[in-house]
Write a structure and sequence with these properties.
The protein has helices spanning about 50-55, 60-75, 90-95; strands spanning about 1-10, 15-25, 25-40, 40-50, 85-90. The protein has about 110 residues and is α+β, with helices and mostly antiparallel strands. Strands 4-3-2-1-5 form a five-stranded antiparallel β-sheet. A hairpin with a 2-residue loop joins strand 2 (about 15-25) and strand 3 (about 25-40). The longest helix is centred in the middle third of the chain and has 15 residues, at about 60-75.
Length: about 110
């Protein structure tokens, strides 16, 4: 199923972004948080998503990567054209059909 991000918006609470997505014709929304941590003399900006986002897309890491990229761009103030396609959603059975068998040879 085609998956796309249809809307990104900042929430009133500081550093929270709401992401609206379509998977096929079903609409979902997720909250992402942004924080800055310091390790030694380095500041790291970290984006985290709510647990349900990770559970829904656990077999679709390509979509997670694309959405995280869009959230980062949005947070940085870059222009994003929406709706943005982020890939095809597949279930575990679908993914298994595309796996190639692993062939292993031992030389003696």
């Amino acid at each position: 199923m085609k998956t796309q991000v249809s809307k990104l918006q900042f929430l009133p609470k500081k550093n929270l972004i709401e992401v609206w997505m379509l998977i096929g014709s079903s609409e979902f929304h997720f909250t992402f948080s942004l924080k800055v941590d310091q390790i030694a003399n380095y500041h790291l900006q970290i984006i985290t998503h709510q647990r349900s986002f990770g559970e829904i897309f656990r077999f679709n890491q390509h979509i997670v990567d694309e959405v995280m990229n869009l959230v980062w761009m949005f947070y940085q103030g870059e222009s994003i054209k929406l709706p943005a396609s982020v890939g095809d959603f597949g279930n575990p059975e679908h993914a298994l059909r595309f796996q190639k068998p692993f062939e292993f040879e031992i030389e003696v």
